[in-house]
């Protein structure tokens, strides 16, 4: 049973084909890029690691999805011999607003609700809708699902999700904190509980998803009770190119001094700040670590700032939940950067964490315990896999089959 997982952006389509018949197997993955530009391309790889790249104009998402299906069907580098071998399609959808508390099978009603969230995610939701409609045209009989970045956080209490704005801003515009990366936060927390043989619904867990985008979530008794991203993904931690938390007055000051329009300011806070902006070196932690080792003071400052903010959120979420049983590090940085983990967990013994600094040094991209045996609060590195969550949710919604 093959599930096609699609993440449609405004100018790209990322895809994976997973065989979910037994233990999940990744059969193919790839990306279509530069949709709508004169020169588009597809980069495809199958389960035998055979790569196929093609440069060709991709005027719209329907053409892009047809390219994906052609690559999957190809005699040379394909992995299926007929489109009938695709049992379902699961879409990553950035914003489900207040409509969706979990993943759903796509009906016209669900599609209309995703459409009414376009205002909340103007770059992402329209692209997802193009992907959904394209599949409806090309594979009309194949069931589709939507898995939302926001739905896991719909359990947050109003005291977490409300901003201190006039209440009518919430009533008029649904302006509130939504949070993102929900699939990843839930997946790694459940996976860690499975490894530890713990009941997910009885624990206090802080999940740190540290990738190019980054967020932290407080999960109490299986539910998100607070998360660091807000109305948009800009709030919270310092990220690759996003500011994270910033005094609003500072932004107004910059807009005035630099004469920035709203859209220029939006691009500034999303694309020119964060790790890249402070370091003026790179948005990639690996570059900063190697520069810092060579004695570059700005690289060192950037790394220290990054870790300081993660530490601050961990402390505040322990306070929110009246304690914590487990802290999880995931995402490209959380899973791989021993240096950031080292900085975050220095001087955290007050919280009951006995971090194993020696073991931490060798752990990259693995599910591992990072705290010592006797540590009251456990710390783990857990690998995330958002596409797998989408495929698992799709199977359980379409075939009413629960996968562990
Ligand atoms: P993600 O968005 O989850 O794919 O994470 C991407 C980020 O992970 C990159 O921009 C790097 O900053 C970071 N990263 C990946 N591998 C490593 C590594 N070995 N050491 C440190 N950081 C890494």
What is the strand and helix layout of this fold?
Elements: E1 2-8, E2 13-19, E3 25-33, E4 41-46, E5 51-55, H1 61-73, E6 86-93, E7 104-105, H2 108-116, H3 125-138, E8 144-148, H4 158-161, H5 167-173, H6 182-196, E9 204-210, E10 214-220, E11 223-227, H7 248-257, H8 262-271, H9 274-279, H10 285-293, H11 297-321, E12 326-330, H12 331-336, H13 338-345, H14 357-360, E13 368-369, E14 378-381, H15 386-399
Parallel strand pairs: 1-6, 6-8, 9-12, 12-14
Antiparallel strand pairs: 1-2, 2-3, 3-4, 4-5, 7-8, 9-10, 10-11, 13-14
Helix pairs in contact: 1-3, 10-11, 11-13
The structure holds adenosine monophosphate.
Adenosine monophosphate binds next to helix 10 and helix 12.
Question: How would you characterize the overall build of this protein?
Answer:
With 404 residues, the protein is of the alpha/beta class. It folds into two domains: 2-148, ATPase, nucleotide binding domain (Nucleotidyltransferase, domain 5, 2-Layer Sandwich), CATH 3.30.420.40; 182-386, Nucleotidyltransferase, domain 5. The chain has helices spanning 61-73, 108-116, 125-138, 158-161, 167-173, 182-196, 248-257, 262-271, 274-279, 285-293, 297-321, 331-336, 338-345, 357-360, 386-399; strands at 2-8, 13-19, 25-33, 41-46, 51-55, 86-93, 104-105, 144-148, 204-210, 214-220, 223-227, 326-330, 368-369, 378-381. The protein has an eight-stranded mixed sheet, with helices on both faces. It has a six-stranded mixed sheet with strand order 11-10-9-12-14-13, sandwiched between helices. Bound molecules: adenosine monophosphate (AMP). Residues 211-212, 240, 284-286, 331-333, 336-337, 364 line the site of adenosine monophosphate.
């Amino acid at each position: 049973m093959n599930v096609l997982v699609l993440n449609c952006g405004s100018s790209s389509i990322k895809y994976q084909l997973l065989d979910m018949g037994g233990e999940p197997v990744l059969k193919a993955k790839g990306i279509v890029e530069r949709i709508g530009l004169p020169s588009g391309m597809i980069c495809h790889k199958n389960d035998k690691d055979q790569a196929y790249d093609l440069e060709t104009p991709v005027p719209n998402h329907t053409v892009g999805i047809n390219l994906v299906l052609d690559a999957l069907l190809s005699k040379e580098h394909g992995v299926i011999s007929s489109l009938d071998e695709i049992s379902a399609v699961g879409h990553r959808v950035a914003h489900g607003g207040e409509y969706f508390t979990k993943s759903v099978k796509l009906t016209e009603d669900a599609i209309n609700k995703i459409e009414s969230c376009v205002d909340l995610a103007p770059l992402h939701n329209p692209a997802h809708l193009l992907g959904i409609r394209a599949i409806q045209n090309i594979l009309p009989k194949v069931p589709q699902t939507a898995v939302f970045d926001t739905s896991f956080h719909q359990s947050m209490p109003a005291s977490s999700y409300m901003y201190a704005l006039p209440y009518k801003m919430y009533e008029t515009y649904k302006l509130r904190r939504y949070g993102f990366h929900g699939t990843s936060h839930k997946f790694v927390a459940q996976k860690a509980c499975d490894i530890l043989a713990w009941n997910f619904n009885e624990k206090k867990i802080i999940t740190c998803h540290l990738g190019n985008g980054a967020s932290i979530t407080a999960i109490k008794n299986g539910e998100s009770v607070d998360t660091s991203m807000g109305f948009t993904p800009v709030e919270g931690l310092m990220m690759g190119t996003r500011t994270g938390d910033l005094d609003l007055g500072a932004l107004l000051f910059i807009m005035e001094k630099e004469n920035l329009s709203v859209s220029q300011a939006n691009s500034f806070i999303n694309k020119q700040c964060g790790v890249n902006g402070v370091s003026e070196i790179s948005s990639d932690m690996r570059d900063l670590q190697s520069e810092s080792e060579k004695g570059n003071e700005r690289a060192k400052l950037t790394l220290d700032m990054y870790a300081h903010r993660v530490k601050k959120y961990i402390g505040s979420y322990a306070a929110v939940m009246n304690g914590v049983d487990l802290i999880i590090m995931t995402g490209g940085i959380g899973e791989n950067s021993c240096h950031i983990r080292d900085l975050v967990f220095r001087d955290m013994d007050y919280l009951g964490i006995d971090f194993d600094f020696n073991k931490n040094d060798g752990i990259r991209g693995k599910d591992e315990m990072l705290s010592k045996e006797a540590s009251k609060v456990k710390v783990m590195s857990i690998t995330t896999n958002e596409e797998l969550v989408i495929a698992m949710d799709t199977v359980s919604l379409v075939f009413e089959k629960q996968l562990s």
